[in-house]
């Protein structure tokens, strides 16, 4: 069964973490893993949603029937093209097909009325709305708390039908593709290719690809593989883009073989003849080799774009939208968590500031009291000095008074003395006279 | 043909249409498988068991290679988890295998918390995946999945019953990981004892409500083998990396004096069964169960914890936008409320402080002290002033008295002089006669 192999150094894969390489010395059995995956996928079944867009009459329904070798649109279930429509509709038909034990739930989304009006401005709007609503459904289902197996109704591929004018893309074609190339895998097809000769077809294809590059439209690109064979095939396909197709609902006998084709007086244009048109290439690519990749690109690229845009809008609702891109690596919950932390920091700062204000007020009050005290002291000092001065003045006055008084008393005493002496002298004189 | 999940999902409203030829979408499983093979696979095993039960040896034997690791001592203070990642390749299939070992499990005297670090580790891997899944810009398709896909629980070959540590640990783990219990070093048990041992273990697990991993029987291609194997659980295994020559082949075996235990001999032990079931048949199912059951349970609990609901009170389903916006509004409201509360609390505090006894009494003390000083000084000043006034008054009185005296004296003197003058005049007059 399996043999062990010696490894050389291998490049990084499956995420960033590199493990140690180990050689196996015998049979282990995990080489059976792919079979287990196979088994489980068959048991689950597959689903695929294909959208067809183009003006009416370009053979879209016929091509679908030819691709899936079935009468998806039949007299009982007429295709949208046979019904009357006024505005652009988006209609889906679901069918279950089985082949080789594999179940496929196929959803075909048709857009009747596209490009048929006189004024086709915004005729792509119902289409983009439909695609977005499917993304929305998936996002909601994915974000539920109780999740169940989620049906994948997202549009995995859009076949865009270009009218075989032979000249180039119409403005509507360009406008539509520019609006949808980042929402869905676009595969442009040249419809009713049996109206052009091979040379005309070549020229037409070249012109279209030129215009697609000019307008920077991103059509579905094939993934790189390591397989040389595959890459060769892919390069061949790329040379023939956009694929020119023919569809047919009728089986015609050609050289004893029963083939799908279109009967003309001058011959039969065979649908599955690689010389006549690129139908086989389309079918092989769309169904047999790249169906899974179309789903993966839808899931990993288009859906993720939608989701990140949606979540960024919800998360930064009302917040400055100039946040740098690095912020988008967080989940909305982590974003809220960070905002919560910022808020806590802000509140702490606020609390600190308030404490500071508080302290300051206390200090102010204390200072005021101190100032009052100082003022009190000063005034007291002043009054004391004042009093002292008055005291001195008083003392001076008293001294003067005392001096005056003393002087006068001395004077009085002298006068008294004199008076006494005078009166004594008079007394003596008086006595003399009498004799 | 059995019905597929897709067919069931589609329901009755979808018609099945026949195909008129070979379309080619039966290559879808191959396309899917090719992509997986290109990406590579990843598988994570957790080995839980006491030191010395041969966990590392069994891993080596199972994957036919020598992984890292020195045998650990018995003196670990707690249970730690060591994980190692290896890149293996078999045919064109690349497998990134991570083996996580519990170091020190069962060695402590008090084993009450032994299971905690294991549960934390498992939860941490779920959390990492959840965080990645919730990011705005995420890369799930290239994410290295570290969630544990299988937990091999090593039971000691006592031959009697499960230890209480085993029951407690498995009970804590059964809702978080696929548990595959195995009897380690089963060459220590005889065949008859083994049968009894297995029955005892199974009944103990059932009676304690421990849910171990059952091999799936819904896929008809493997239902039979899986259900047979389910009846052999738990597997009794022997591990060995040494080879012994049996017949003309070198086989992995353990050599005893009384015989050789061959690892890959189904009569000797269940190693081959374990390998078949674990790796060859059900590896993908183990990964799927981890993702769709254990991880979803973790996620649901975590989101409910954070307050997320699927329906509003009227049982109408929320859209993602509504949910997030509601959460965000609630969150912002909470923040604003907190801010407002803080402001009000501060205003309140200031008021309280100002009326607070502690605050006031301090200032009150200072103020009253100041008032006291002020009053004292005022009184002092007034006293001094009064004294001064008194002194002034007494001086004025003395001055007045003196003045009066002076005036009186001067008056007397004047009178005396006038009298004296007249006397002199009289004398002069007499002389003249």
From TrEMBL, chain A:
The keyword Glycosyltransferase does not apply. Its main location: nucleus. One of its GO terms (cellular component) is midbody. Keywords: Cell cycle, Cell division, Cell projection, Centromere, Chromosome, Cilium, Coiled coil, Cytoplasm, Cytoskeleton, GTP-binding, Kinetochore, Mitosis, Nucleotide-binding. Residues 333-418 form a coiled coil. Belongs to the TRAFAC class TrmE-Era-EngA-EngB-Septin-like GTPase superfamily. Septin GTPase family. This is Septin. It comes from Fundulus heteroclitus.
From TrEMBL, chain B:
Residues 414-433 are annotated as: Disordered. It comes from the Eukaryota. Keywords: Coiled coil, GTP-binding, Nucleotide-binding. GO terms for molecular function: GTP binding. The keyword Nucleotide-binding applies. One of its GO terms (biological process) is determination of pancreatic left/right asymmetry. Residues 39-305 form the Septin-type G domain. Signal peptide: none annotated. GO terms for cellular component: cilium. InterPro entries: G_SEPTIN_dom, P-loop_NTPase, Septin. Residues 367-405 form a coiled coil. Belongs to the TRAFAC class TrmE-Era-EngA-EngB-Septin-like GTPase superfamily. Septin GTPase family. This is Septin.
